UniProtKB/TrEMBL annotation:
The chain crosses the membrane at residues 9-31, 68-88, 93-113, 119-140, 160-182. InterPro entries: Ig_E-set, OxRdtase_Mopterin-bd_dom, OxRdtase_Mopterin-bd_sf. It comes from the Bacteria. Residues 236-385 form the Oxidoreductase molybdopterin-binding domain. The keyword Transmembrane applies. Keywords: Membrane, Transmembrane, Transmembrane helix. PANTHER family: SULFITE OXIDASE, MITOCHONDRIAL, SULFITE REDUCTASE. It comes from Cellulomonas humilata. This is DMSO/TMAO reductase YedYZ molybdopterin-dependent catalytic subunit.
């Protein structure tokens, strides 16, 4: 009967073999591409298989750190399974070996199932698993008390631990080297540095100085690019070389069109201020940002392709397989729906879609803002579904009129007297017509709107409250031309959260 200590050593052997597997896998992925790294491939498959409630939980709990949390969770699960493989292998080699083979096969299939998978996508997982198997066999043979090990137990133990530590260290070096070299070799960053963004054919209307409400604690009207929220399913940021990029427009069209990067740069480019928002943004949340985009009107491209008869949707597709279903009408009704190449006058940041992404005013990102876009297929809602629709979200996602209080912060104390309450409201492509603030169950008070930057952008507001000491709850609501936003509370699934943002404050 194996003792508890033997089990511990066997688990260590499994861990070391697991790390070797990952290290070799990530080194082989230097040849086959970052999305074939077993850790990345399994994580991506997991992301794709994630049901709507779990995505919602991850986004609302971890925000844009959800990828880091996923990565840590994945590594912990893999290491636990590797330890189990070690324990099994020590009892009976075939059991442990079977577990390693199954794990390797799962990782290989995950990599081969990625939308951008090449023929060798499974190689890192397969080669890694073979290296792991060989390591595990060597280490299990060296377990103290294993058959054919005549030396005194203490000596055996030391030899085993040395071999295990060496294997584990080599594995870690492999993982670190693979990742570091891979990150250095990512081509898009240098391609981006070489891009010259042409001047707009149509410039955006000048932004009034008063778009910023001028209250400390209310974020800038223009979101700095490096603070812009990032939401996507990509565990490694797709690296797209503009010189080989092209966009194919096909499906229900009279003429198929292929657009190259050079043609895009030479076309008429429109500049527009648009506030992008994520459907997973909870009430009061910050998965939203406002920027100046530059791009070719998608309507111009569709006019060349000439959509046929009863087409009512454009299914855009990214290099990494993400898809979005955008109503054809939203792309052709004259709003600034763009194939964007620049944010704030600079080439798109790689994680925000370099070289080309879509930006459509008034629609949540998941149905409109495809990054790294390479394909537009004109089709019908009745015939096709997009990435998130297949996971429980609505096929159409117009942005809901919303508002949030940014000052005062929740749970803070403010001195009695004049208290400035301020924040942001948005109703992209409809426009904010008013914002009101309510104290507890009192009546609604009109806030002052800051200057309007564009009908597709958010709008800041402030209200001065004559506050007496006590505990209060503040509520905000915004109005668009159709009337005030709803106070009915709804979660983000299936088509965006509703309800009033509220803040509790103590007046002293
Ligand atoms: N290729 C790709 N594009 C994508 C997504 C994605 O997962 N993959 N996510 C969409 C979602 S849900 C949102 S809210 C916006 C976010 O854009 P940002 O990361 O530039 O803020 O991108 C959209 N475009
Ligand atoms: Mo989103």
């Amino acid at each position: 009967m194996a003792t508890r200590r033997d089990t511990g050593l066997a688990a260590l052997a499994g861990l070391a073999a697991g790390v070797v597997t990952l290290g070799v896998g990530s080194l082989v992925a230097l040849i086959t591409g970052p999305s074939t790294d077993p850790l990345v491939a399994v994580g991506s498959a997991f992301v794709d298989a994630t049901p709507a409630w779990l995505k919602d939980f991850a986004a609302s709990t971890f925000g844009t750190a959800d990828k880091v949390v996923l990565g840590i969770g994945e590594v912990l699960v893999i290491l636990a399974l590797a330890a189990l493989a070690g324990v099994l292998a020590a009892r009976r080699w075939a059991w442990g070996a079977t577990l390693v083979v199954v794990l390797g096969a799962v990782a290989a299939l995950a990599a081969m199932g990625r939308p951008d998978a090449g023929t060798l996508a499974g190689a890192p997982a397969v080669v890694g698993a073979i290296a792991g198997l060989l390591t595990l066999r060597e280490l299990v043979r060296r377990l103290p008390g294993a058959p054919g090990r005549p030396r005194p137990e203490g000596v055996q133990r030391r030899a085993f631990l040395q071999a295990t530590a060496a294997a584990g260290a080599l594995g870690v070096v492999g993982v670190v080297l693979g990742r570091a070299i891979g990150a250095g070799a990512r081509g898009a960053q240098s391609a981006r540095a070489a891009v010259r963004i042409p001047s707009p054919t149509t410039t955006a209307a000048p932004v009034p100085a008063g778009v910023d409400v001028g209250v400390d604690g209310v974020g800038p009207w223009q979101t700095p690019p490096d603070e812009f929220y990032r939401i996507d399913t990509a565990l490694v940021v797709p690296q797209v070389d503009p010189s080989t990029w092209s966009l194919r427009v096909h499906g229900m069209v009279e003429e198929e069109v292929t657009l190259t990067w050079d043609e895009l740069l030479e076309g008429d480019l429109v500049e527009a201020w648009v506030t992008l928002a994520c459907v997973s943004n909870p009430v009061g949340g910050d998965l939203i940002g406002n920027q100046k985009w530059l791009g070719m009107p998608i309507a111009d491209l569709l006019a060349r392709a000439r959509p046929t008869g009863d087409a009512d949707m454009v299914l855009s597709r990214s290099v990494d397989g993400f898809t979005a279903s955008t109503p054809l009408a939203a792309l052709t009704d004259g709003r600034d729906a763009l194939l964007a190449i620049a944010m704030d006058g600079e080439p798109l940041p790689v994680e925000h879609g370099f070289p080309v992404r879509m930006v459509v005013p008034g629609l949540y990102g998941y149905v409109s803002a495809t990054k790294w876009v390479t394909e537009l297929r004109v089709t019908r809602f009745a015939d096709d579904t997009a990435y998130w629709t297949e996971r429980g979200w609505s096929a159409e996602g117009p942005i809901k009129t919303q508002s949030r209080i940014e000052v005062p912060r929740p749970g803070t104390s403010v001195p009695a007297g004049s208290v400035v309450v301020a924040g942001t409201a948005w109703a992209q492509h409809r426009g904010i017509t008013g914002v009101q603030v309510r104290v507890d169950q009192g009546s609604w008070n009109d806030a002052t709107l800051a200057d309007d930057g564009s009908i597709d952008s958010w709008r800041q507001w402030s209200w001065t409250w004559d506050a007496e000491p006590g505990e209060y709850q503040l509520f905000v609501r915004a109005s668009d031309p159709q009337g005030p936003q709803t106070g009915a509370v709804a979660g983000v699934i299936p088509d965006g959260a509703t309800g009033y943002d509220t803040v509790r404050v103590t007046v002293t």
